[in-house]
Design brief:
- There is one protein chain.
- The protein has 972 residues and is of the alpha/beta class.
- It has 39 helices and ten strands.
- Helix 2 runs antiparallel to helix 3, helix 4 crosses helix 26 and helix 23 packs across helix 34.
- The longest helix is centred in the N-terminal third of the chain and has 32 residues.
- The chain is globular.
């Protein structure tokens, strides 16, 4: 017995050493570049194939082949990837979404390239670099770990590496060559990957798919080490390796026998599931795969072409028709990714698992092998399997509630690997299983017609989830998750909906694919397929149903018409280039075509100009639309474009003079700043707009003056200058303007600590209806923390927050929004892929405002009811986006409005217009809290000023008194 234990321990140390090498390489690469190298296993596979090619095929000496492979090829491959794939992404801003897709693209490209070069069959003649005993491998691991640790701790390069990890941009400003550090990290990571591959190849299956997946399964050791500690990674790897070997001695009996045996042989997969789903998430940066610009609508003619192409296989026969049967089924699977990833913005690397479960359940139900259910006809079995698999979407949907970015990618990948290892490859689930086709659809042509009908139903379901209220909410969550919560979107439930709907569609497509192949093939639903499908959908347009159809045809057609691996290689190339065209190839072609167009504006001849004047005579001067003030009513024509002389929305243009003041980022002096001066207070078609300062019956001669706001300490008027009472707006007026003396939102004894730092220390605050309260103070005083506690994005360690008489301390942000507590953000929280009107409609819908005219009134109120309403928010100037964000908040009818630096990025005229709108809201009975650094704005706006310092409110009172005291104290 002791001899067996010893032998098993040695075998476990051998396996654990290979896993430790993988962990070391992944950690070094991640620490140097911030990239979790999903291509690590593919690099290991390529190096193993190259060593075999050199030694077995070309007859090189083992030492020479190993030297070339490990000292030249592997590090060189890492440097090439850093230089040509990941460095351009870092220069463009290091978008985590694009980096993740590029990493998966490298994986897919290397797998496809290996399949093209060496075929898809397994090889069992890989040369042995180190004998099958653990001491040599263990020595290599310990030397590498100790050497890397010494370099990181005690060398200059280690100091530079730590600086780059902490803050790459700051390190560059300090004179550190971050590119050299990143290149070194990639070279070392690729070297360890190559060493892992050549050590494992003689003892495992060497093929383009199996070895990369086997290496990626042991990513658990790096995750368990929090992607930081090499010592922890080595210990975890060796421990899991030994434990897995020792578990082979167990021979359980009973119903749990197959499951325990599967766990004993896949302990690294169990560790991956635990590390990805249970341990705190790694890399929680926002890595949502969204585009920076709005998606361009597909021309209707394109759908006609697609319909014709999908009907063409009906005229085929034989093998061509049999191959075409796979396209509609795969298209349905990829539509599930359009819902989850394209519209919902959630990373899902495990859709292959749900597709495989759909095929497996369909086969089991049709065979009558699913316990508790009778044998069903194939079509009924397919429908029931969809119903059974849909709730299993919670396996990935539930982790998505608290995880995002890299952590979510790992969680979904772990689920896919776990289902594959514990279900698809186990004899207890799939032995002796066959799958037929529905009665009457046995032939390929008849079955293809059935698939087209099911594909049409899937397209309708996808369309329903991408349009209407649910579609807008999903797009809002994708574009800006925190902004969606602030708009009232129930983000957790919406994520679950996206994953459940995605699981249902994937199960439908998987069942269709299984019936098309007439068998359940576990290889068709391998986790590597899931990575390939994810990359294909993202690079061809994640939010495009047309892209999913094109990806399905591409994946099936290329591999069927050429050698296997061509489709994977092509998708890999496109994924590597994703940073160049994040909107997909179609958007890239449109951009290129637009750049190639002549930029000269054609000029009319004198004859042409006279003809135009006869056909379109000039309008009389009195018929022109009355000018309007930006920020209060209709937007001025020049306000939607940045810079002077920008073309107006009515097609004209004129030079503009922008007054001095704060300029919006990315604009020349602020958009439309000069044009805002000298405008009268009229709304659309010259009608006066009540409820805004200056919007009533102004005395003659005053219409051309822009109000500058009250003097410091002055309270805003509760009615318009003309004596017109402000109209009801949302819930505020519904409560008939409660007394200003009665607090509407109260905070008592709020305490928040971050580690050993106290951010809030017993803060009390009251917000009353009809009053504007401002909070000022230095950076680090606790203003933002207080704001988050009131908005619901942070739960205090102690104290309470009450809305009226209701305790809302434990309520999340979206629930508070629906109760009437709304907020804006310092950094704009708009949804760029939605139009201006859709942005505002999200606020009304999620705020449960039943009045159908609320959106239109809000558009008119903030001057967004012109042509700008139909424009996507992406690309609009900062001043306009501030109004869009405020309009979205107001459309929900808030009783309490929390404004976080509302004047950030605005010029002087825009700040003045904003102040007038906020005073009108207060006059309408809304309670406002403003966190603002601009003391001049605070002085002219606030009724009460609270001064914070060191997590406490140290002064409170009228703005004139408090700000003067603050200025004396700071020596201003």
């Amino acid at each position: 017995m002791s001899s067996l234990t010893y032998d098993l321990t040695l075998a476990g140390l051998s396996v654990g050493s290979a896993a430790a090498l993988t962990g070391i390489g992944l950690i070094v690469t991640y620490r140097a570049t911030g990239v979790l190298n999903f291509a690590h296993g593919a690099i290991a596979m390529v190096c193993a194939y190259v060593l075999r090619q050199c030694v077995v095929e070309w007859g090189w000496p083992l030492w020479l082949g190993a030297a070339v492979t490990l000292l030249v090829l592997a590090p060189g491959l890492g440097v090439v990837l850093e230089r040509f794939v990941f460095r351009p992404l870092a220069v463009l801003g290091g978008d985590p979404a694009q980096t993740l897709v590029a990493s998966i693209g490298v994986f897919v490209l290397l797998v496809g390239g290996a399949a093209l070069l060496w075929g898809q069959g397994a090889r069992d003649d890989a040369p042995v670099l180190v004998p099958d005993e653990p001491w040599g491998q263990l020595a290599v691991v310990l030397v590498l770990a100790a050497g890397v640790t010494a370099v990181i701790r005690w060398t200059r390069f280690g100091q530079e590496l730590r600086a780059v990890v902490d803050d790459r941009r700051l390190a560059v400003l300090g004179g550190i060559d971050a590119d050299r550090v990143a290149a070194t990290g990639w070279a070392f990571g690729a070297f360890t990957a190559g060493l892992t591959g050549v050590l494992l190849a003689p003892y495992v299956r060497l093929d383009p798919y199996g070895l990369p997946l086997l290496v990626m399964e042991v990513v658990a050791v790096a995750v368990a080490a929090r992607m930081r500690s090499l010592a922890v990674a080595v210990v975890v790897a060796l421990g899991i390796g030994v434990a897995q070997s020792q578990l082979t001695r167990l021979h359980p009996s009973g119903w749990a026998e197959p499951l325990l045996q599967a766990a004993a042989t896949n302990l690294f997969v169990v560790a991956l599931l635990v590390a990805a789903l249970v341990l705190p998430g790694v890399g929680e940066r926002d890595a949502l795969p969204r585009t920076a610009t709005a998606r361009v609508p597909t021309p209707p003619g394109v759908w006609i072409v697609v319909l014709v192409l999908f009907l063409l296989p009906l005229g085929l026969a034989g093998r061509d028709l049999h191959t075409s049967v796979q396209v509609p089924a795969l298209a349905v699977i990829l539509l599930s990714l359009v819902v989850v990833t394209g519209r919902g913005g959630q990373i899902s690397l495990g859709q292959a698992a749900y597709a495989g479960l759909g095929a497996l359940f369909t086969a089991l139900l049709a065979a009558g092998r699913l316990p508790g259910l009778p044998a069903l006809p194939e079509l009924a079995a397919l429908a029931v399997s969809v119903v059974l698999v849909a709730p299993l979407g919670l396996l990935t949907g539930w982790p998505a509630i608290g995880r995002r970015g890299l952590a979510l990618a790992l969680a979904t990948f772990a689920v896919g690997v776990g289902v594959s290892r514990f279900v698809f490859t186990q004899p207890y689930a799939t032995s002796g299983l066959s799958l037929g086709r529905p009665a009457g659809f046995d032939g390929d042509r008849a079955y293809y017609v059935l698939e087209l009908l099911l594909l049409a139903a899937a397209l309708l379901a996808t369309h329903a989830l991408r349009r209407g209220r649910t579609g807008r909410a999903l797009a809002a969550m994708r574009d800006h998750e925190r902004g969606a919560q602030a708009a009232g979107v129930g983000v957790p439930s919406l994520k679950l909906l996206a994953f459940v709907a995605g699981a249902a569609l994937a199960a439908l497509g998987g069942g269709m694919l299984g019936m098309g192949l007439r068998a359940f093939d576990a290889a068709a639903y391998d986790p590597v397929r899931g990575l390939l499908w994810f990359a294909a959908v993202v690079v061809l347009g994640a939010d495009s149903t047309l892209g999913a159809l094109a990806a399905a045809a591409l994946l099936v057609g290329l591999d069927a018409g050429t050698r296997g691996g061509v489709a994977a290689a092509l998708i890999g190339v496109l994924a590597i280039l994703v940073g160049r065209f994040p909107g997909g190839p179609y958007e890239a072609l449109r951009t290129t075509a637009r750049r190639l167009r002549p930029r000269g504006t054609p000029a009319l001849t004198q004859t042409g100009a006279r003809s135009r004047d006869r056909l379109h005579p000039a309008r009389p001067q009195g018929a022109r639309r009355a000018p309007v003030p930006t920020g209060a009513t209709r937007a001025s024509h020049g306000a939607e474009g940045p810079g002077a002389g920008e073309r107006r929305e009515d097609g004209g243009s004129r030079p503009e003079h922008h007054p001095a003041g704060r300029a919006a980022p990315g604009t020349a002096g602020g958009p439309g700043a000069g044009e805002r001066r000298g405008r009268t207070e009229h709304g659309p078609a010259g009608r006066a707009v009540p409820g805004l300062p200056g919007g009533g019956n102004r005395p003659p001669g005053t219409g051309s003056e822009m109000p500058t706001g009250p003097s410091p300490g002055r309270r805003p008027s509760r009615a318009t200058p003309g004596g017109v009472a402000p109209p009801p707006v949302g819930r505020a007026a519904a409560a008939s303007a409660p007394s200003a003396a009665r607090p509407l939102l109260t905070a008592r004894h709020l305490h928040v600590r971050y580690g050993g730092f106290t951010a809030l220390d017993g803060v009390d605050l009251e917000l009353s209806a009809g009053r504007i309260t401002a909070v000022v103070g230095p950076n680090g005083a606790g203003k933002s923390t207080l704001f988050h506690c009131l908005a619901g994005t942070l739960r205090p360690a102690g104290g309470t927050v009450r809305l009226g008489g209701r305790d809302i301390t434990a309520l999340p942000a979206h629930t508070r929004t629906r109760l009437g507590v709304a907020r804006t953000f310092q950094e704009l929280a708009v949804f760029p892929t939605l139009t201006v009107a859709e942005n505002i409609r999200v606020g009304a819908e999620q705020g449960r405002v039943a009045d159908p005219g609320a959106v239109e009134r809000t558009l008119r109120l903030l001057g967004l009811d012109g042509p700008v309403r139909a424009r996507p928010a992406a690309g609009l100037p900062t001043g306009t986006l501030r109004r869009v964000e405020l309009a979205r908040v107001l459309a929900g009818g808030p009783r309490v409005l929390l404004l976080d630096e509302p004047a950030a990025g605005l010029d002087t005229a825009e700040v003045t217009a904003l102040a007038r709108v906020l005073k009108a809201l207060a006059a309408d009975g809304t309670a406002l809290l403003v966190v603002e650094h601009d003391l001049d704005l605070v002085a002219g706006l606030a009724d009460v000023v609270q001064v914070m310092a060191a997590g406490r409110i140290v002064a409170t009172g009228p703005p004139g008194h408090v700000l003067e005291a603050l200025e004396r104290e700071t020596g201003r």
